[in-house]
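Folds abound. Consider this:
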Amino acid sequence: MAVAALRLLGPAARRAAGGVPCRAHRLTPADDEFYQRTKVVMLEPESPSTVFIEGYTSRGFTISGDLVVGPCAILPRAILQWNVGSYRDISPESLSLFRLLEPQIEILVLGTGDRVERLHPTILKQMRECGIAVEVQDTPNACATFNFLTSEKRLAAAGLIPPRGTYTGA
């Protein structure tokens, strides 16, 4: 009689009563110890060469322990001199370097010196059409934003013009 009652209640009731699982039995976390374990597989080890802006002066930047003099373009795997003298020199041609990167960057952080300067709307529109978001800030905030984005493993690049002030990270 008890067996007939268990059949009517279904597989969950049979398991609860200590019965043998039927073919329709699905594993639950309580049934399988491997189901409860978390396994992490590293597909790519963390790169020790992550770029970090440590400080800046009116002459340039300290990036990952190296001094870079003058305006610079910080790419995911390289640091280059950037041929601009002020924010007025930022043009579609000076930003073409950032559009050519593979894999494509998600966001470009531009540091325009001591103050946030407005760039021509066509420049920003051209970058958006290429799928690149542009954040224009004063250089001290641009450095902090770039460091935050790279610490979050975002594909970011920066174009920085040195400000008149100094920050050494101390």
